[in-house]
Design brief:
Length: 233
């Protein structure tokens, strides 16, 4: 099983922290956020992870050079940002023969069990499974509406008038055929350019447990306070 960890963003909302530290390398209770994600992939049975890089790539590459696995990790440097969907498309050959693959945003902190996403996706055999969480500010993210069967029936990125509080959690299971839905030249974004095309076909899974987008200094401060209290040592 393979997974993309999307870590190439510049972390502009998290400045000045990210002026010297890439977002995936910020410290969470004594370890980089990147290592928390790699451990989560390992627990879920992921064998190979591709981490895309752009901002301060040498720091991440140096850290990955000391990683012995599992899982095995490969870095993909993007001189120009391809966008989250563009990264998937650029590495199509890597996953084209697989039944499905995982994609996760590296700027979220969660104790969500990725193996439950794997199990749900396998059980329903859909083109995609999208995770969501209940947000107090859904207009700041991708808002999902689902029907009684758990199928996504609408998706809007950063809408003025959200139809629900169910917000994209940035963790997905995709069949390789979703890449056929990404049209045009990069940069291309999963939220703007892919998920709207999967309406009516993608399953939705609610994230249980802890979840926080650590995109701002205030969110990062809260995450550091909350993580140790919520995660068993």
């Amino acid at each position: 099983m393979k997974a993309f960890l999307l870590a190439a963003g510049t972390g502009s909302r998290l400045r000045p922290i990210t002026e010297t530290v890439p977002k995936c390398m910020i410290d969470i209770d004594g370890q980089p956020l990147l290592d928390i994600w790699l451990a989560a992939f390992h627990r879920a049975g992921v064998d190979e992870v591709l981490v895309n890089l752009h901002h301060l790539p040498e720091i991440v590459s140096r850290h990955l050079g000391a990683h012995t696995g599992p899982p095995t990790v490969r870095a993909s440097f993007e001189p120009e940002l391809l966008g989250s969907a563009g990264t998937l498309l650029a590495n199509r050959k890597w996953i084209i023969d697989d039944d499905f693959f995982l994609v996760c945003n590296a700027d979220n902190l969660t104790d969500f069990d990725l193996s439950s996403l794997v199990g749900t996706h396998r059980a329903h055999d859909q083109i995609a499974t999208v995770t969501v969480f209940r947000s107090e500010q859904p207009w700041a993210g991708g808002v999902v509406e689902l029907n009684d069967a758990g199928i996504m029936i609408s998706f809007a990125e950063k809408p003025r008038h959200p139809v629900s509080d169910l917000t994209n959690a940035g963790m997905y299971a995709f069949h390789p055929s979703v890449l056929d839905e990404i049209a045009g030249m990069p940069p291309k974004d999963i939220g703007y350019d892919l998920l709207p095309r999967l309406v009516g076909r993608a399953g939705v899974m609610l994230v249980d447990g802890y979840f926080r987008d650590i995109g701002t200094p205030d969110a990062y401060r809260l995450a550091r306070q909350e993580w140790r209290a919520r995660i068993p040592s």
